[in-house]
Amino acid sequence: MENKKNIILNERKKTDLKTSDFYYDLPEELIAQSPSDERDGCRLMVLDRKSGATEHKIFRDIIDYLNEGDMLVVNSSKVIPARLLGKTDKTGGDMELLLLRMLDGGEWETLVRPGKRAKVGASFSFGGILRATVTAIVEGGNRTVRFEYDTEKYKSIYEVLDEIGNMPLPPYITKKLENKNDYQTVYAKEEGSAAAPTAGLHFTEALLDKIRAKGVGYGKVTLHVGLGTFRPVKVEDVESHEMHGEYFHISAEVADEINRRRAAGGRIIAVGTTACRVLESASTPDGKVHPTNAETGIFIYPGYDFKATDALITNFHLPESTLIMLVSALAGRENVMNAYKEAVEGRYRFFSFGDAMFIQ
Fold first, then answer.
1. What pLDDT, on the 0 to 100 scale, is given for residue 8?
2. CA 70 to chain centroid
3. CB 265 within 8 Å of CB 275
4. Is residue 247 left, alpha or beta, with left meaning phi > 0 and alpha meaning psi from -120 to 50?
5. Directed axis angle between helix 273-281 and helix 322-331, to 10°?
6. What's the pLDDT score for residue 285?
7. What is the pLDDT of residue 228?
8. CATH number for the segment(s) 83-164
């Protein structure tokens, strides 16, 4: 299954589900604007996907629900300071770029604002050290751009971004981020994401050490979070929605350990929807996970048959989003919508910096 160019899609299943079936009413004050004081001190709802029963804990209690022989699979992708604020070279007007992914040849696919200033050939400057030129207008109005900078001073575009870029927080977070590391997992390593795999934000090194000491496996995969995270579902017919491709990688070593532990009766627990999408994209119908280097456009919604994911650690997601559809596929739509109603009534904190859920 080694094929970087391949885009992996799920087998479409006929469903009568509508996007509005995944709507819930969320008071604005429950949208978390900042992380918990302690990463592992947030609240944790435990959802039994068979019965729908819930328990209410603190995130560090997750260790009590993990058994020797189980395995955590985490997404080690690192968020880059992908939000650039600059000026157009022609008029000096304000320009904002959000870098989504690097393309073959070194160009980048980006979201731009305002689009009217980003015609092919237009150029922009950022911080006096980076220049971008629009090379094409692509799907959904995105632009591909070519960057220029002093390659003697900076070894890569990532060094430039570290100096002048801003963390690309979701639009529902309006509070300024005081510490860039608050939007990174403690195991983030592979640069390339335009948003954090937020389920992993709750882990500390100390908690991971305790989990590993219990005999729970721990494997890193990579999925660079891109446009799919920002694209809302605009169609009412769920199966008509198309996901954007995102690059992922799983090594032979990690795949082998997943297969070994699962064959021995252990559960494979995805930390976040991105890790879950890697597992499902890299597995065959027999449940075996294979080393893979590819793009995935897999869209998981109720009716999907999970092949390699037994449990999921995740956050509370936006109404009518592909992410709430994924968790509903694993735990059942009715169970998930009831749990979300309970979370709202219990004043849980929602979205990227919010509280967590463990679906087992």
1. 79
2. 22
3. no
4. beta
5. 70
6. 94
7. 66
8. 2.40.10.240
| Contact assessment for residue 350 and residue 32, using Cβ atoms and an 8 Å cutoff | yes
- Count of CB atoms situated within 10 Å of the CB of 20: 10
Residue 74 and residue 274 in contact, taking contact as beta carbons nearer than 8 Å: no
258 vs 255: CA distance, rounded Å: 5
Domain boundaries, the chain: 2-79+179-359, 83-164
pLDDT at 12: 63
Q: For the chain (length 360 residues), average pLDDT per consecutive 10?
A: 60 81 97 96 98 98 98 97 94 94 90 92 95 93 95 95 92 87 96 94 98 98 82 88 91 98 98 98 96 95 96 97 97 98 98 97
Q: What is the pTM of this model?
A: 0.92
The Cα 302–Cα 108 span in angstroms is 34
How many whole angstroms separate alpha carbon 282 and alpha carbon 289? 5
> For domain 2-79+179-359, which CATH number applies: 3.30.1490.20, 3.30.530.20, 3.40.1780.10, 3.30.565.10?
3.40.1780.10
* Residue 163, helix vs strand vs coil: helix
CA 107 to chain centre: 22
